[in-house]
Every structure is written in structure tokens, then in C-alpha cells.
């Protein structure tokens, strides 16, 4: 009889975690005639003026600026911007490599995105098809395919909801039934102890802390070569937000691989112990 695979998940932030900077900065913001610094500064002022959520504000600002510059904002246009995104070293090969290692330990590894970035852009990146689900900010479109308003805005506090969705197997964002139902921990598809969160900054702290507090693991990554970002990641470990830090280099043999393999080993060992306890 075949051995049942152990469920495990990695949830990633996207901006600054799998790719440098914010995804809108690669080609969209230059297309609407702004620098990234000017765009985010203006958006912060807009959000403060209206006491608005900064994610909802930036999404609306994107549409307003695009209209002013006569730039099309259909789903396929966002996808074209997504295709320009340059990922961190080794990201394209990471998934096959870690999946293979997990499988050798009888672990079924799934990957998820939880991001404030634009879903339509993330989906179009070279790794967009590697994820079981991409939870990210997205737009609603009219009959002509043009983006009209934000359909979903994910900010740093609402990110934690999607960890519970992964934990409970409630992956449809419009369905609030299962996510609000009581489900015994032992009946949840992916236990928190088998969840890893990988992020890069302060906006990831609620997710990092939740996963750690529930018995899982959090990894803070930083842009290779940046002393400032490394110091920020070290502070996350010092403040007990994250368990590990590593450069955002996903190449085989780098620290991220060593950390992830150690966690997979631990998940497999814990599962073996539980089986022995049950006799």
C-alpha cells in the first residue's frame, strides 16, 4: 500500500521576496509617466487625505493615471507588464528542486502567494503557474475587458486571513462559509505546523508572527548585497517575528535551500512521531 504524503505549504510574499521592488514599478509606473518615488509619495498623501487604505488608494491611482495618459488597463495589458518582472536568482528553478526534495521525504509541498501586489501581473510572471493559489490584489473588469475598480485589496493585516484559508482549505476568496466555520485542528488540510511563510519586510510581520505562534516557521529574506535590508531582516529575527534569515537567492546550495530542507525534515520527523504515538 502506498504511503500517504504529508501535506505542507510555503506561502510567499511577492514584492521584495521573489522579485526586487514592487511589481508595479517594473514597467507600469514608467508607462503612466511617473517615477516610482513620485508615485508612492503621491499615493501616501492621497491615502492620508481621504483616510483611505493605501492599497485601495494605489489601485485607484493606477487607473486614474492610466486614464489621464490614455494607457489601456485590460487584463492582458497587466499581464504584459507582469512578463517584464525580473525575479531573484534561482527563483525559476526553486520550485522543482524543493518539490523533489519534499517528495523524497513523503511530503506533498504546495506553494501560495499572499501579496498586496497586482494578481494579474504576478500570474503572468515566469513562475505564475507554480502556485496552487495566488492571493493578491486584483481588479474587476467591464464588458470590454477594461479594469474599472479594485475587486480585492490585500493589505498587511488582511494577509493573515489567507493563511487560515490555506490551513482550512478554503481557497475561494468570495466564500466565507468554511473560513468562518469551526474546524478541529486535526481535520484541517494543512496544519500550521506544516506551513512556512517567506517575506521580506514590516508588512509581512503579522503573517510571520501568526505562523510562528501556531507552530510553523517564518523566513525573512533580503536583497543580496544590501546591508540595510539585511539589518532589517536580522531585526525580524531579533524581535521574534521570523525564525531564520537568508539572502533572497533561490539557487540550489544557497542558505534558503538548506533552511527549507531542514524544515521539511522536521515536518517528516514530527509526522513519524505522531504515527508512533497512535500505535
From TrEMBL:
GO terms for molecular function: hydrolase activity. Keywords: Hydrolase. It comes from the Bacteria. It holds the Pfam family HAD. InterPro entries: HAD-like_sf, HAD_sf. Transmembrane segments: none annotated. SUPFAM superfamilies: HAD-like. This is Haloacid dehalogenase-like hydrolase.
Amino acid at each position: 500500500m502506498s504511503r500517504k504524503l504529508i501535506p505542507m505549504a510555503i506561502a510567499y510574499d511577492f514584492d521584495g521576496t521573489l522579485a526586487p521592488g514592487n511589481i508595479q514599478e517594473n514597467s507600469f509606473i514608467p508607462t503612466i509617466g511617473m517615477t516610482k518615488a513620485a508615485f508612492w509619495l503621491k499615493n501616501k498623501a492621497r491615502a492620508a487625505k481621504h483616510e483611505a487604505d493605501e492599497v485601495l488608494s494605489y489601485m485607484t491611482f493606477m487607473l486614474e493615471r492610466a486614464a489621464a495618459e490614455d494607457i489601456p488597463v485590460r487584463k492582458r495589458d497587466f499581464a504584459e507588464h507582469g512578463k517584464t518582472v525580473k525575479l531573484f536568482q534561482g527563483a525559476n528553478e526553486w520550485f522543482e528542486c524543493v518539490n523533489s526534495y519534499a517528495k523524497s521525504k513523503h511530503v506533498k509541498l504546495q506553494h501560495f502567494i499572499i501579496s498586496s501586489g497586482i494578481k494579474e501581473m504576478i500570474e503572468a510572471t515566469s513562475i505564475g503557474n507554480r502556485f496552487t493559489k495566488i492571493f493578491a490584489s486584483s481588479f474587476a473588469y467591464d464588458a470590454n475587458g477594461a479594469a474599472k475598480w479594485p475587486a480585492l485589496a490585500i493589505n498587511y493585516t488582511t494577509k493573515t486571513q489567507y493563511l487560515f484559508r490555506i490551513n482550512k482549505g478554503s481557497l475561494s476568496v468570495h466564500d466565507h462559509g468554511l473560513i468562518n466555520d469551526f474546524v478541529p485542528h486535526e481535520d484541517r488540510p494543512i496544519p500550521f505546523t506544516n506551513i512556512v511563510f517567506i517575506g521580506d519586510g514590516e508588512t509581512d510581520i503579522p503573517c510571520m508572527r501568526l505562523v510562528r505562534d501556531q507552530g510553523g516557521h517564518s523566513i525573512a529574506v533580503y536583497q543580496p548585497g544590501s546591508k540595510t535590508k539585511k539589518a532589517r531582516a536580522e531585526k525580524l529575527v531579533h524581535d521574534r517575528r521570523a525564525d531564520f534569515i537568508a539572502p533572497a537567492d533561490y539557487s540550489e546550495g544557497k542558505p534558503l535551500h538548506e533552511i527549507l530542507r531542514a524544515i521539511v525534515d522536521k515536518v517528516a520527523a514530527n509526522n513519524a512521531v505522531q504515527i508512533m504515538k497512535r500505535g
